[in-house]
C-alpha cells in the first residue's frame, strides 16, 4: 500500500510541476508577443540574474511558492488556487471556502489503466488558473494552454483521458 | 495496441523496471495536453527533448523516457496525424547503445510501419506541426 501511494505521490508531483511550468511557458510566450518581453526583463522583474532565469525556464522543476509568485508578478498575472474533490468534482476547496463549479466538470481518471499509480493522489485533485490581469475576460492560462475565459469549467485535471486515444500502438 | 507495449506502459508487464512514476507522468502530460518538449532535429546538444525526430531517417520519432538515467527507454514511432503519435517499438536505451545500432534500427522502422498497412504519416518542419498542446523545441529560445 505504501509503495503504491509513493508512486502516486511522485506521479502527481511530476504532473503538477509540468502543469505549472507549461502554464508559465504559455504566459511568457504570450507576453513576448504582446510586450517584446526579454530574459533580461524577466530577470529584473523577478530579482534574479539572467543565469537564474535561464535555469528556471529550462524545464519543469520543484518550484517554490516564492518562485511561482515572483513569476506571476513579473508577468502581471494572478495565481488562483483550488483543490478539486475527486469524490465530487464540482466541489472545490478554495482559500475563501467551498465553491461548486459548473456541473459539466468531470474529473476523469488520469490514465485509464485501472492501476493505482496513474490516478490522482488521494481524494483531492489540484488545479490552478493564472488569469491574465490585462484582459481577464479573454484568456485564462492553464497547464493545457490558453482557453477562453468563458470556459471556466476546464482545468488541468478535467480532460477526459484514455491513454489509447493518442498514444496508439498497433 | 500491441499487448506487450500496452502492458509495459501501464505497469502490467513483467518488465518491472519500465513502469515508474516519471514514465507515467510523461505519458499523462502528452495525453492530457500538458506541456511537452520536442525537437525535429535530433538532439545534437543533449537538451533532452521528450519527443525527438531522428536524423537521416524518414520521419522516425522517439518518445524518450530519460529518467532515471540508468533506466532510459525509447518508444519509437511516427505521427500518423496532428497530435496522433503511434508508437510501435519500445527499446531500452542501453539496447540502442551506439549511434550505428540506433541508426540501423531506425532505418528498419519503415518495415515496422508497413505492418500496420499503408497508413499515411505526418511530415512537418517544426514541432508545432506535430503537436498542438503547449510544446517547446528546446533548441528554440523561449525569450
Q: Span from first to last CA of chain B?
A: 39 Å
Report the end-to-end length of chain A measured between terminal Cα atoms: 33 Å
SS element count, helices of chain B: 4
The value of Rg of chain A in angstroms is 17 Å
- Main sheet: strand order of chain A: 3-2-1-4-5-6
Helix and strand string of chain A, N-terminal first? Answer: HHHHEEEEEEHE
The structure class of chain B reads alpha/beta
What gross morphology of chain B would you assign?
A: globular
3D architecture notes:
- The complex is a heterodimer of chains A (170) and B (143).
- Chain A has 170 residues and is of the alpha+beta class.
- Helices cover 37% and strands 21% of the residues of chain A.
- In chain A, strands 3-2-1-4-5-6 form a 6-stranded antiparallel β-sheet, covered by helices on one side.
- In chain A, strand 2 and strand 3 (97-100) form a beta hairpin.
- The longest helix of chain A is centred in the N-terminal third of the chain and has 34 residues, at 2-35.
- The two termini of chain A are 33 Å apart.
- With 143 residues, chain B is of the alpha/beta class.
- In chain B, strands 5-4-3-2-1-6 form a 6-stranded mixed β-sheet.
- The mean pLDDT of chain B is 87.
- At the A-B interface, helix 1, helix 5 and strand 7 of A face helix 1, helix 2 and strand 5 of B.
Amino acid at each position: 500500500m505504501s509503495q503504491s501511494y509513493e508512486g502516486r505521490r511522485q506521479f502527481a508531483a511530476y504532473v503538477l510541476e509540468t502543469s505549472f511550468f507549461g502554464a508559465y511557458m504559455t504566459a511568457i510566450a504570450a507576453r513576448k508577443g504582446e510586450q517584446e518581453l526579454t530574459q533580461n526583463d524577466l530577470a529584473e522583474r523577478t530579482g534574479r540574474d539572467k543565469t537564474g532565469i535561464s535555469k528556471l525556464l529550462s524545464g519543469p522543476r520543484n518550484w517554490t511558492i516564492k518562485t511561482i509568485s515572483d513569476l506571476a508578478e513579473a508577468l502581471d498575472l494572478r495565481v488562483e488556487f483550488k483543490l478539486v474533490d475527486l469524490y465530487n468534482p464540482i466541489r472545490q476547496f478554495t482559500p475563501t471556502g467551498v465553491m461548486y463549479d459548473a456541473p459539466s466538470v468531470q474529473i476523469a481518471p488520469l490514465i485509464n489503466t485501472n492501476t493505482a499509480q496513474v490516478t490522482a493522489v488521494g481524494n483531492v485533485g489540484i488545479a490552478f488558473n493564472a488569469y491574465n490581469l490585462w484582459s481577464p475576460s479573454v484568456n485564462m492560462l492553464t497547464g493545457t494552454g490558453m482557453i477562453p475565459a468563458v470556459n471556466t469549467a476546464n482545468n488541468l485535471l478535467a480532460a477526459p483521458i484514455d491513454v489509447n486515444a493518442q498514444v496508439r500502438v498497433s | 495496441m500491441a499487448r506487450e507495449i500496452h502492458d509495459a506502459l501501464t505497469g502490467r508487464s513483467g518488465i518491472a523496471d519500465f513502469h515508474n512514476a516519471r514514465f507515467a507522468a510523461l505519458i499523462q502530460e502528452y495525453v492530457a495536453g500538458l506541456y511537452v518538449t520536442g525537437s525535429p532535429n535530433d538532439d545534437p546538444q543533449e537538451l533532452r527533448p521528450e519527443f525527438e525526430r531522428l536524423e537521416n531517417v524518414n520521419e522516425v520519432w522517439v518518445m524518450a523516457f530519460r529518467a532515471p538515467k540508468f533506466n532510459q527507454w525509447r518508444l519509437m514511432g511516427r505521427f500518423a496525424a496532428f497530435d496522433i503519435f503511434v508508437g510501435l517499438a519500445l527499446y531500452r536505451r542501453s539496447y540502442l547503445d551506439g549511434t550505428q545500432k540506433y541508426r540501423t534500427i531506425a532505418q528498419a522502422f519503415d518495415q515496422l510501419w508497413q505492418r500496420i498497412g499503408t497508413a499515411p504519416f505526418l511530415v512537418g518542419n517544426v514541432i508545432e506541426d506535430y503537436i498542438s498542446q503547449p510544446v517547446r523545441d528546446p533548441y528554440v529560445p523561449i525569450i
